[in-house]
Design brief:
This protein folds into two domains: 1-108 and 269-374, Isopropylmalate Dehydrogenase (3-Layer(aba) Sandwich); 131-264, Isopropylmalate Dehydrogenase. It is 40% helix and 21% strand. It is of the alpha/beta class and 374 residues long. A ten-stranded mixed sheet has the order 2-1-3-12-11-4-5-10-8-9, with helices on both faces. The chain has a two-stranded antiparallel sheet with strand order 6-7. Strand 11 (273-280) and strand 12 (286-292) form a beta hairpin. Bound molecules: 3-isopropylmalic acid (IPM) and magnesium ion. Magnesium ion (MG) binds next to helix 9. Its cofactor is Mg(2+); Mn(2+).
Length: 374
Amino acid sequence: MSDSYSLLILPGDGIGPEVMAEVVKVIDWFQAHRGMSFDIGHGLVGGSSYDAHGTPLTDETMARAQAVDAVLLGAVGGPKYDVLDFSVKPERGLLRLRKEMDLYANLRPAQCFDALADFSSLKREVVAGLDILIVRELTSGVYFGEPRGIHADGNNPDNEGGRVGINTQRYTSGEIRRVARSAFELARRRSNRVCSMEKANVMESGILWREEVQWVHDNEYADVELTHMYADNGAMQLVRNPRQFDVIVTDNLFGDLLSDAAAMLTGSLGMLPSASLGAPMANGRPKALYEPVHGSAPDIAGQGKANPIACILSFAMALRYSFDQGAAAADLERAVERVLADGVRTADLTGPDGGIPVTTAQMGDRIVAALSQG
Ligand code: IPM
Ligand code: MG
């Protein structure tokens, strides 16, 4: 495998372009100091694509995303686009990328950096040292299930307003098994424990989920400890005692909710990266898209207040999962940790007495400087 990697950078909307500019500094550092070579293309997604082309993702950009080793995405959305028709909303661009690239395993680590434990809404002793990984199914379930839509509710005289809104929670065995395998594989490289979450007490799709995860376990991963939990209890346990978990595997919608809750445990949404992975391509690398868990934060866009760390750590995940550069990823993660330990903070992480925050660009510069210090 060559040491040249192709990347498509889609900064998106709001703070996306600002945080992505800091990632580019980090990429440049790895090119200059680690003999890696990145072939970088840029494109539009979300509202910025809608403004330019009338669609949140053009076919041309979709095709380029399919052809590269990894896509790096900033964030999509903003109040300006709230009025748009559902089919052209910024989020549709992101969902199309996930679906057409078939990125079924969404890895959302929630790690509590020691320097930031006091920023969590929970007590330090509950979150210090937290290191969990949520594996969210990303290409199916209620996000994509058919039938869907808003329709007139026939001749139902009891329905004031006269309409019905429909979404379908639908999972096949195959969809469940493949994401379960991802979770078990990841658990083997961590603390070897998987907790699967669904609502098997009310949903047939939840019963199937539980049975199929158990099947994959019994037949292929009996060495990994597997437990099952109803997703509502899972939400409660996440805020009660989050360190009981290692890997959590769950469906698209529960994963959306549970990963936001897990994110907040760590003190700042601005810290959390994610990787969305699909099947291996011809070159052996998985189809992949990396993005911060946070959104486009339009209220602070363009002010240099955004925290670029989630986006930078997403690039660290790209180094690890797409490019097999685990050592480089660890170096980057250590550089982030060191900068935080030195008390360097963007505005989201400065308390009332926290001093003057650094800008987005200054944070990027500090992380690059920490990389150079080795
Ligand atoms: C996420 C986001 C997206 C989702 C939105 C932007 C469509 O909340 O990545 O968690 O719901 O999946
Ligand atoms: Mg979400």
